[in-house]
Design brief:
The chain has about 220 residues and is α+β, with helices and mostly antiparallel strands. It folds into 2 domains: about 140 residues, no CATH class; about 70 residues, no CATH class. Helices cover about 25% and strands about 35% of the residues. The chain has 6 helices and 9 strands; from the N terminus they run E-H-E-H-H-E-E-E-H-E-H-H-E-E-E. A hairpin with a 5-residue loop joins strand 8 and strand 9.
């Protein structure tokens, strides 16, 4: 089957490791009051709840400095907030953690038997609408989606079979160079003046075979 005729539901191999949705915002007057309403609205969606401090939260490659810049707030103000953590999603086939704080929310999907993003996307869209509805002064500063792959490729040519070369710019290889790491970023804007920060990249490394031999590997 030609690549342009393959839909995402035709794919059988799972190369996803983790998916992260994140919203940065301001304007929540009482996070505890919102959590009470959230529990009522999404009753039965999660079975485990706990309160944790930010120093126990793994934002995965996202620093508090980045959140600080998007919200124009001191890092210390963000770090000292309690995080309301919900775990054990009652539907889907993956491990889900939802962290809600006064200034950001992160939905982390650890892909165990990943099939599609649809159910998680629907949930997060519903959550985003709900948090806006419940907080009169809410101002969303950033909405992000990050996907992390787990597949390792022996060559860049193999990587190209799964990822479109035009999104990674492999021209240097044709000029006689070996690409060890590539990070690309495009800042886009829609007609509605919504800014989209589109980042992608790949990195070269080594893996040890069962015989103890170092082998070159690539990951996007």
């Amino acid at each position: 089957m030609e690549k342009d005729k393959i839909g995402r539901y035709d794919l059988k191999d799972n190369i996803m490791n983790s998916i992260f949705f994140r919203i940065d915002y301001q304007g929540i007057i009482s996070i505890d009051a919102f959590i009470d309403e959230f529990v009522k609205k999404f009753k039965g969606t999660f079975t485990i709840f706990e309160r944790v401090y930010n120093n126990r939260v793994d934002l995965f490659l996202t620093s508090y400095q980045e959140i600080s810049e998007s919200l124009s707030l001191p890092v210390k103000e963000i770090e000292q907030q309690i995080v309301h953590r919900f775990r054990d999603f009652t539907f889907g086939t993956d491990k889900i953690t939802l962290d809600i704080s006064k200034y950001y929310t992160v939905l982390h999907i650890e892909c165990i038997n990943y099939e599609s993003i649809d159910s998680y996307l629907i949930f997060f869209a519903e959550f985003a609408a709900f948090i806006h509805e419940q907080n009169e002064f809410l101002q969303v500063r950033r909405l992000g989606l990050r996907k992390v792959g787990t597949a390792l490729y022996d060559t860049i040519e193999e990587l190209k079979k799964d990822f479109e070369p035009k999104y990674f710019d492999f021209d240097f290889e044709e000029k006689g160079f070996n690409s060890l790491k590539r990070e690309l970023r495009d800042l886009l804007s829609t007609k509605e003046e919504i800014r989209i920060d589109f980042r992608r990249g790949f990195e070269a490394g080594e893996a040890i075979s069962e015989e103890g031999v170092k082998l070159p590997k690539y990951q996007a």
